[in-house]
Amino acid sequence: MRMPVxxxxxxxxxxxxxxxxxxxxxxxxxxxxxxxSTDSLWRNRRMFVSGRCEIxxxxxxxxxxxxxxRLVKELFAFQQNRIAVRxxxxxxxxxxxxFRAYGNENWEFGDDGLMKRxxxxxxxxxxxxxxxxxxxxxGRRPDTYPGLSELGL
Length: 153
Fold this sequence. Notes:
Blueprint: H1 10-26, H2 29-33, E1 36-44, E2 47-50, H3 51-65, E3 67-79, E4 82-92, E5 98-109, E6 115-127, H4 148-151
Parallel strand pairs: 1-6
Antiparallel strand pairs: 1-2, 3-4, 4-5, 5-6
């Protein structure tokens, strides 16, 4: 069994959100895909992704476009086997233009703790280098680094 598993408490939902953030900040498509069921269904913006193989391909493509990607997630709500999160991430494109993406995700988990469904709504905002807020070294966000609420996001 993958921990934590449903039904979620506030503490286990917060833990699940941080584990997801850590995985995505690794920018390792294979590692990230292991948190999802083999038949997981995603809606990511206008794209629909089905199953781990497509998740890996999608993430490989995503991180080839979004350079110096840094993500912060925060629990919004939870109930039984569902979690809602809000998040922000920053990246730059191949031309060096910076963006902050804001979004919300709705997650549904199986009894094994693997995510069965992920519905993501995301908006990109061009930002200047001076407006950036997410500066830690690439990889896991340090525990001492502020979260979304502390950053005013």
